[in-house]
């Protein structure tokens, strides 16, 4: 099987790594091309993590099942991945442009909850980003306090997902 090149990473077209954690995806768009992902990374001045690229290539704009995760004693919702499709209402560039005045530089959204909050890659300290949860209402007052550490990687985030406990 021929791999695709993204930055200095070779990506398997079937993305087997992501499928091993019992997360399924619904309502995803058609497959996204690696060139669209690479172009998006270039626009942000970053290189997206390999595990995310493998997932987004097959599940662009998709909704994960299960979709709940715990953060600071609360159950939160991973509603959907932001899309690289410019026509999608949850487009990654549009989402970023809507909130960039309230985001800290090098914090890049890649998913959203149903309430206007975002799940983001935080590249401030490393080329290998951590994952943070960004609360849009808090960001009006203090950009830094709007972000809460969630986990170390996209794969870690997917492994945190569970069914609703309510």
TrEMBL record:
* Pfam families documented for this protein: SMI1_KNR4 (PF09346)
Superkingdom: Bacteria
Task: Give the InterPro entries listed for this entry.
Answer: Knr4/Smi1-like_dom (IPR018958), Knr4/Smi1-like_sf (IPR037883)
Starting at the broadest rank, the lineage of the source organism is: Bacteria, Bacillati, Bacillota, Clostridia, Eubacteriales
- The protein in question is named SMI1/KNR4 family protein
Native organism: Clostridium estertheticum
Domain Knr4/Smi1-like stretches: 43-159
């Amino acid at each position: 099987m021929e791999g695709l090149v993204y930055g200095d990473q070779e990506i398997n077209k079937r993305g087997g790594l992501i499928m091993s954690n019992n997360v399924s995806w619904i309502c995803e768009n058609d497959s996204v091309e690696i060139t669209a992902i690479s172009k998006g990374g270039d626009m942000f001045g970053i290189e997206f993590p390999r595990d995310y690229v493998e997932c987004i290539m097959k599940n662009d704009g998709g909704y994960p099942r299960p979709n709940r995760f715990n953060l600071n004693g609360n159950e939160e919702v991973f509603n959907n991945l932001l899309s690289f499709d410019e026509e999608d209402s949850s487009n990654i560039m549009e989402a970023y442009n809507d909130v960039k005045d309230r985001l800290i530089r090098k914090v890049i959204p890649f998913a959203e909850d149903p309430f206007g909050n975002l799940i983001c890659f935080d590249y401030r300290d490393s080329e290998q980003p951590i994952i943070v949860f960004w609360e849009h209402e808090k960001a009006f007052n203090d950009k830094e306090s709007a972000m809460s550490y969630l986990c170390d990687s996209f794969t870690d985030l997917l492994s945190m997902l569970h069914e609703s406990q309510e």
